[in-house]
Amino acid sequence: MTGTSCARFARPLVLATALAVLAGCGQTDDPSTTVPPEPSSTPPAASSAAEPGDGDIQGSFEVSGHDLFLDCEGTGTPTVVLMHGSIFEAGDLADGGSSEWAWTRDELGDTRTCAYDRRNVGQSEQVPGMSSAEDAIEDLRGLLQAAGENPPYVLAGYSFGGLLSLLYAGTYPDEVDGIVLVDATLPLEWDLDPPSIAPRVKKELNANAERIDFYGAGATTEAVLDRLPKVPITYMFALQHEPYPKEWKGAYPGTLRKFMRGLPEGRLEEYDTTHDMVYVIPGDVADQIQRVLRDAGV
């Protein structure tokens, strides 16, 4: 695990800079890696207090003493909860994490989805100090409850958001009907790091702009993996992912495949594209979400 701008755990620059990021991560001329047209469902310019209830929701709710932004649209159950990647650059904080799902949401049509900004991100409130992965999960659960979005949920997590989706599912297994991991960070990545590089990796991971204990999230999530619900779990693997840390000695793909085989309803889907799947292949991301919804009996 490294601290490069294109690492698995790093959130890609959003919207206007997506092309530049893809070029920096080795984008090819393959049309499957082309950024799609700008979505119609753009995020609101400013947050406002929201009221719980059915229908579209776009605003903030107070959770544990701070305001968190939530954007829900569509109909049906279960609600698909969209969990954004990590934000490492301070200049990206204002864009918010919820916006990275805009193209996928367009592809999902009227499916009920909720995207949100974690604390210190976008339209959510700045909270002093470093937060933990557990804080992020409790924030999300409290936010959904405050908005009247009742479980069960299908969780879709991109990059670091995928790690948090596993943590949520292992913490509250009765609330989750399925999971889609979009080229997600997994606890096995910490296992691949030799102990000698742990201090450097911790420093790099925890230098993120949203001030979340990224490094600690690995062990926290690994501790609940044996409590994951027996539900459909799909991993979307980007084959054009940038080079992995040399310390992993090429072990990641095989370790990932073994991890997915160990899940009762795990399915690995491989795509010849870059890490930035929510930008370059949002239709495929939407298709996998719909597939998990079907497999969950919806």
Structure description:
This protein is an alpha/beta fold. It has a single domain (15-41, 53-295), classed as 3-Layer(aba) Sandwich (Rossmann fold). It has helices spanning 18-24, 102-108, 133-146, 160-171, 188-192, 198-205, 214-222, 252-261, 277-280, 282-295; strands at residues 57-63, 66-73, 75-83, 111-116, 153-158, 176-182, 233-238, 266-271. α2 (102-108) packs across α10, α3 (133-146) crosses α4 and α4 runs parallel beside α7 (214-222). It is globular, with a radius of gyration of 18 Å. 47% of the residues are buried. Mean pLDDT is 86; it is low at 1-48.
Total DSSP E strands: 8
Question: What is the tally of helical segments?
Answer: 10
- Decide which structural class fits the backbone: alpha/beta
CATH architecture: 3-Layer(aba) Sandwich
Helix content: 25-40%
Q: What number of structural domains do the residues give? A: 1
Mean model confidence by pLDDT:
86
Question: What do we call the CATH homologous superfamily?
Answer: Alpha/Beta hydrolase fold, catalytic domain
Intertermini distance: 37 Å
Q: Any idea of the CATH class?
A: Alpha Beta
Reading the helices and strands in chain order gives HEEEHEHEHEHHHEHEHH
**Which overall shape is indicated by the principal axes computed on the Cα atoms?**
globular
According to CATH, the fold-level topology is Rossmann fold
